[in-house]
Amino acid sequence: MTVEQGYDEKLARILRIAAEVFAEKGYHQASIRDISRATGVSLSGLYYYFKSKEELLFLIQEHCFQTVLSNLEVLLDEVDDPHRKLRLLVENHLRFFVNNMAEMKVLSHEADSLSGEYRRRVNDMKKGYSQVCVEILDQLRPADSPIDTRVATFALFGMMNWIYNWYRPERDIPVEELAADMSHLFLRGFMEADVADLPPGAAEAAPGESRPSIWRR
Amino acid sequence: MTVEQGYDEKLARILRIAAEVFAEKGYHQASIRDISRATGVSLSGLYYYFKSKEELLFLIQEHCFQTVLSNLEVLLDEVDDPHRKLRLLVENHLRFFVNNMAEMKVLSHEADSLSGEYRRRVNDMKKGYSQVCVEILDQLRPADSPIDTRVATFALFGMMNWIYNWYRPERDIPVEELAADMSHLFLRGFMEADVADLPPGAAEAAPGESRPSIWRR
């Protein structure tokens, strides 16, 4: 093992355990002391890898997006068919996050906890990633599709990212089937979303609020 | 205005503002003092409505589910067509949460912050709500559909609930169009998700991880 591999593996382990601590306690309530206790690495050992709790949160987020994006780049290399590309994107995303659900919860709940340069860099990675998806959808989109691309992109990410709230590998279908179901649900919907052939009930808007609500309208 | 209406309206206003405070600062970091400052209601005035911060969080969550569920019940009354029912469910959900995005963030991020009886009661409401969706999907499901109902249900809720991360009423399409796009995306996908007629690239699974990752497999 080279020195650099040793560094990477030790950091990867710290990031993984820290993500579990943040997912469990919440970023703001968790302390570096909690991370030290959970990892068995001393405080000074931890500060060798990052200067602050915020940098640690940044490293977790950066590492997730870098891994997902670089795996996706390898998978999409030399693939031309946009259906295939979308399937690979869905499978890559789900495969990574099913195995890293604590990270998914942290990415979702702590998106606003980063500030300044850290936040800018994570946002750039997110934009880059959704742009890959938007480009695939633009290639797939039927000329007469009524679906807004931004809605379609975030509908797909919402469908996938929500799994941290319900998917349990031990009770649910395996990740390959999950990816197949979500790809089919989405692709079919996106490719054939033609209002005209939906049953009338499905196409008509609901009547406005059916009765006054004391909640906000 | 009756006494009860006055009570309800004042409480509704407190819950709405408290949801904004929790969405902004996080439940654990926000204090009842913050809620008092934001609402302009004294601490003793607030404790007239709830005994603890946890009860306040419960009331917010309960109020959301009660409103969404009772609005849905009115909308679905005497509707038989399951396509129509699904469209109404999507529109009801999106219409409420587009107008109550702080609540959506709180429901999502603070699901684990309730304990004991509060948690049990909210979980029962959530189960009741997803059960309404499951029953509609069971009516819609083509006999040969390969899609798992639990996956379909949570794919739909994920698609809808994720909007608090990206949807901005001032820059995005109106909520009616959002509901139309999501209903179409989902309904088409769910009704016609037949693996056999998807292009081969979309149906085949991706090769396993394409290279070793220092992240968890």
Structure description:
2 copies of one chain form a homodimer. Chain A is mainly α and 217 residues long. Chain A contains 10 helices and no strands. Chain A is elongated. At the A-B interface, helix 1, helix 4, helix 5, helix 8 and helix 9 of A face helix 1, helix 4, helix 5, helix 8 and helix 9 of B.
Distance between the termini of chain A: 61 Å
How many β-strand runs of chain A? Answer: 0
What radius of gyration of chain A results from the CA coordinates? 21 Å
Q: Helix and strand succession of chain A?
A: HHHHHHHHHH
Mean pLDDT of chain A: 87
| Largest binding interface between chains | A-B, 86 and 86 residues
**Main beta-sheet strand count, sense and barrel state of chain A:** none
Q: Give the uncertain stretches of chain A in residue-range form.
A: 209-217
Q: What coarse outline of chain A follows from CA principal-axis ratios? A: elongated
Q: From the helix content, strand content and strand pairing of chain A, which structural class follows?
A: mainly alpha
Question: How large is the count of helical segments of chain A?
Answer: 10
Report the helical percentage of chain A: 55-70%
Assembly type of the chains comes to homodimer
Estimate what percentage of residues of chain A fall within beta strands: under 5%
